[in-house]
Amino acid sequence: MTRPGGQGRSQTLERTGTQRPRLWRVLLLNDDYTPMEFVVLVLERYFRKAEQEAQLIMLAVHHKGQGIAGVYTKDVAETKVAQVTDHARREGHPLMVVAEPEDNP
């Protein structure tokens, strides 16, 4: 679309499209000290997982070294990491929680 820009010139207006925000995975990492029950509690409380799904994710963490707790926008993922890390430390657990971008932006 063009608009007269004064003195015989035209001004071109660009349309910008909106894109979906990049998504980030929140991962729980295995350690030898955090109780499995605590991992299930975290998955239920902070990631709203049903008990059975929380158990499956906890077993993935235990056997594969990590499990995906959820996929969120960057701000939400970072908030979840901070909340879970804070809760784990208050309870004396070294549970590691990280957020990483998904491969396909």
Tell me the major beta sheet: 3 strands, antiparallel
Number of distinct beta strands: 5
Helical amount among residues, as a percent range? 40-55%
Low-confidence stretches: none
In CATH, what is the homologous superfamily? Ribosomal protein L7/L12, C-terminal domain/Adaptor protein ClpS
Number of domains: 1
Q: What is the average per-residue confidence, as pLDDT, rounded to a whole number?
A: 90
Q: Please compute the radius of gyration using only Cα atoms.
A: 22 Å
Anisotropy-based shape: elongated
Strand order of the largest sheet: 4-3-5
Judged by helices, strands and strand pairing, the structural class is alpha+beta
Strand content: 25-35%
Write down the CATH class: Alpha Beta
CATH fold title = Ribosomal Protein L30, Chain: A
Architecture per CATH nomenclature, i.e. the level-2 architecture: 2-Layer Sandwich
Distance between the termini: 30 Å
Keywords: Hydrolase, Protease
Family: Belongs to the ClpS family.
Protein name: ATP-dependent Clp protease adapter protein ClpS
Pfam family, one: ClpS
